[in-house]
Amino acid sequence: xxxxxxxxxxxxxxxxxxxxxxxxxxxxxxxxxxxxxxxxxxxxxxxxxxxxxxxxxxxxxxxxxxxxxxxxxxxxxxxxxxxxxxxxxxxxxxxxxxxxxxxxxxxxxxxxxxxxxxxxxxxxxxxxxxxxxxxxxxxxxxxxxxxxxxxxxxxxxxxxxxxxxxxxxxxxxxxxxxxxxxxxxxxxxxxxxxxxxxxxxxxxxxxxxxxxxxxxxxxxxxxxxxxxxxxxxxxxxxxxxxxxxxxxxxxxxxxxxxxxxxxxxxxxxxxxxxxxxxxxxxxxxxxxxxx
Length: 291
Known about the structure:
Number of strands: 7
CATH topology of the largest domain: Rossmann fold
Distance between the termini: 32 Å
Strand order of the largest sheet: 5-4-1-6-7
CATH superfamily of the largest domain: HUPs
Structural class: alpha/beta
Helix content: 55-70%
């Protein structure tokens, strides 16, 4: 059983357990409001899944996974809502929530959910895009090293770039990424080494950009190398990151840019896809450009 199948099966199992627990809790309550029952059948499975997924993320990546605590926060929110709904059904809620506050909450929650789904649709759309053939350039964004070896996210970017270069012999590749404080070589040099030594790509087709420290600089300095913003350029990154990278590229001045998405690794890929919502919103608000 591969990781994807395992995640689907285990998620269905967690949802089933949550549904059963909700059913047991409802059998002990005297309230009979259908809306409250429906909410419990939704909140219980989702809360359990968030808690289990938080533990899975910790097992795979530990606390170094940025914003991993958000799944614990989601689970806490679900637990609070479950408690309030059950107490409301039993008539044991120690306070009365004014109607206007309930209306405000439901409006904010509904609008926020719709906005989240719209952004996530854009993220998923970019991560499943298929790039056109014969792009003049592709830019591989750096993603951290382990010594002089690529991290797992960078490995899949390099692999995807090699596939595109093999299919499109006229394309030039820009390996983009500077050298971090704990890295032996620059990310650009690592990308070039992997492409030439592992995949047999002609080194004459690879240009290194070794000054950048983040996505904004990756794309800014790469455009300086390209020289013409009208050139057709593909951005090679992990699928979940492609939509935000495209937004940053447009801000940097690219006029003809397209995603070349690589694999989004599971099981932490789900976390990255959801986390990307906050990165995109921050970019919308002009707070930061990405990681």
